[in-house]
Amino acid sequence: MAAPSDEEGAVGPRCHHRSPAMLDVPFLPFCAFLGALGLLCVAMMGTWCQHWRGGFSLDGSSRTFNWHPVLMVTGLVVLYGAAALVYRIPHTWSGPKLPWKVLHGSLALGAFVLTVLGLAAVFCFHNSQGTPNMYSLHSWMGLGTVLLFSCQWAAGFGAFLLPWAPTWLRALYKPIHVFFGSTILMLSVASCVSGINEKLFFSLKNGTMAYKLLPAEAVFANTLGLLILIFGVLVVAALARPSWKRPDSDSPDSRQ
Questions:
Q1: Closest CA relative to residue 112, chosen from 159, 74, 156
Q2: For the chain, domain boundaries
Q3: What average pLDDT does range 68-95 have in this prediction?
Q4: CA pair distance 23, 35, nearest whole angstrom
Q5: How far is CA 212 from each of CA 59, 199, 204, 207, 209, rounded to the nearest angstrom?
Q6: Global pTM?
Q7: C-alpha to C-alpha distances, 196 to 18, 97, 155, 217, nearest whole angstrom
Q8: I need a labelling partner for 168 at 20 to 30 A (CA). Which of 33, 107, 157, 215 fits?
């Protein structure tokens, strides 16, 4: 390999070292911003359902359906995103790994429970109203995401939390687990955004509130969809950032 010229040696390394510094963002402030954004998404979804869609109930009416989007965004997007970022916290990089595994799995399990409750709400609404289930692309995508999520959690529990799982199995499954973690999050975001759009098309039909006229509800819900999308993209970007990844370790503590 040819040696770099003096100019290359003088300019190249400086540019190489300066760029990461210019783009470097501390993890904890970024995480705090991401948490605030996630809470904003949940708050806006609750506000939309309360202010424009009639509030919440368990009577099988449209107010029962309103639990569906709130629980889905809270569980399948925000809480799931928090679970995905556990191993990016610098404090998790030293000491026993088992407590952080338990936290990661518990957050994911909490997200799954909220997701199941969200599905129960929409099925209860459809059945009480005589509306067919599972006919739209949104419903197919959403249910597929939940099924993939359940498989992901079960496989992760078996591979990383059960003490008799062999080391070679964990090493083999780890990149698969990481890949599907990001995939499930983006599928969740896509499902939520498509659900918001579908709800607006169903709800804003008459001449004074037609979706194409962009009433205040449509502006609010469209903005919410964009914020959910931004949240998902930022979480995936954090997961892909090399400097925020937990260093691999072959110590016994890391293999608990």
A1: 74
A2: 27-244
A3: 93
A4: 21
A5: 31, 14, 9, 10, 8
A6: 0.86
A7: 42, 38, 31, 11
A8: 107
HEC letters along the chain? CCCCCHHHHHHHHHHHHHHHHHHCCCHHHHHHHHHHHHHHHHHHHHHHHHHCCCCCCCCCCHHHHCHHHHHHHHHHHHHHHHHHCHHHCHHHHCCCCHHHHHHHHHHHHHHHHHHHHHHHHHHHHHHHHCCCCCCCHHHHHHHHHHHHHHHHHHHHHHHHHCCCCCHHHHHHHHHHHHHHHHHHHHHHHHHHHHHHHHHHHHHCCCCCCCHHHCCHHHHHHHHHHHHHHHHHHHHHHHHHCHHHCCCCCCCCHHHC
**pLDDT confidence bin for 251, thresholds 50/70/90:** very low
Q: Residue 221: CB partners within 8 Å, gap ≥ 6? A: 48, 196, 199, 200
- Record the tokens describing residue 33, joined without a space: 């911003």
Query: What is Dmax (Cα atoms) for the chain?
Result: 77
Fold of 27-244: Four Helix Bundle (Hemerythrin (Met), subunit A) (1.20.120)
Burial class (CB in 10 A: 0-12, 13-18, 19+), 89: middle
The residue that leads in pLDDT, 252 or 34, is 34
